[in-house]
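REQUEST ID: PR-0412
SUBMITTED BY: lab tech R.K.
PRIORITY: routine
TASK: structure prediction, single protein chain
INPUT:
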Amino acid sequence: SRVYQKLVDHFPEWYVGHYFLGKAHAEQGKFAAAEIEFKKTFELNPKVEEPRFELIDLYMTQQKDKDAYRLLNDILIKDPQNIRAGIVLGHYYHTIGRLNESRERLRNIGERSTSDPEIVKSIIEFYFNKKKYDAAIIILKGMQDGASDNSDISYLTGVAFDKKGNPEQAIKFLKRVKPG
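STATUS: complete
OUTPUT:
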């Protein structure tokens, strides 16, 4: 993080440097410093989305659910069709026990995933890269309600179960994958 700190000190308007400094702080458990850098990133470039999701993840890690929810709502007010925000909100609803809302949101995203492969890619990037397999499973199983024949969703669900060390469930979902 020292390299990024030097860079943002030298180039204070370089939003990418603030983003990477925020990520470095988050990885080191310096959550307050990470929050400042992520906010600075989208202050400097309001169009960039990734730091908002990093900040949401940071809030959820710290169990600052109201802050995470507020930021998700801000994203969805500006872009009601934002897939990633919808996925994260569906998972958030699940974690706080609002299961009907979670199911409905994830089912709708599952329905949309049949025509938009970027949805499934978004899950891989956000949840698999962070090794948050429990969250990925909740989301993917919810999406399957809206796209039960989607092989990509079945495959990823199987892989997530395998990563969690649950081969029986992994096989159950991997058997649903259609060749081609």
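NOTES: The mean pLDDT is 89.
REVIEWED BY: pending
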